[in-house]
Amino acid sequence: MKRQRLANIKALPEGEAVKFQFQRDGISQEGFALSIGDQIVAYENRCRHLPLSLDYGDGRFFTRDGAHLICQSHGALYEPLTGLCVRGPCVGASLRPLKVEFAKGALWLVP
Ligand code: FES
Question: Would the pTM count as exceeding 0.85?
């Protein structure tokens, strides 16, 4: 996987997620990034219970209290910083992480 420009943004507001498309082996995939404190984390937008997007397409990833990421299909809860599923049908599994960074006014996927 090569370095890819994902989105023309300079920062991620706390408590919000930004979705992006990226290429893996020539196939378009969807991911999302969020900032937590001074860290930026990103994951593939795919639940570990079934191969469905967490947000069901509407861009909402967080629980109402903002404490967890939630899969809208069956309610699996994931820790935002680690991607670990802590409640639901895939407890113990983790979202697939992606390495991202800000540079030159954009968010980049780093191989
Ligand atoms: S598809 Fe995500 S919890 Fe079932």
Answer: yes
Query: pLDDT tens for residues 34-70?
Result: 988 888 999 999 999 999 999 988 999 999 999 999 9
Task: For residues 19-38, give the mean pLDDT.
Answer: 92
Domains of the chain: residue spans and CATH: 4-109 (2.102.10.10)
Residue 90 CA, closest ligand 1 atom number? 3
Q: Which of 82, 26, 81, 30 is nearest to 51 (CA)?
A: 30
Binding pocket residue ranges, ligand 1, CB within 6 Å: 47, 49-50, 52, 71, 73-74, 76, 88-89
Residue for token pair 């109402």: 64
Q: What is the residue with the minimal CA distance to atom 3 of ligand 1? A: 74
**Of all atoms in ligand 1, which is nearest to the CA of residue 47?**
2
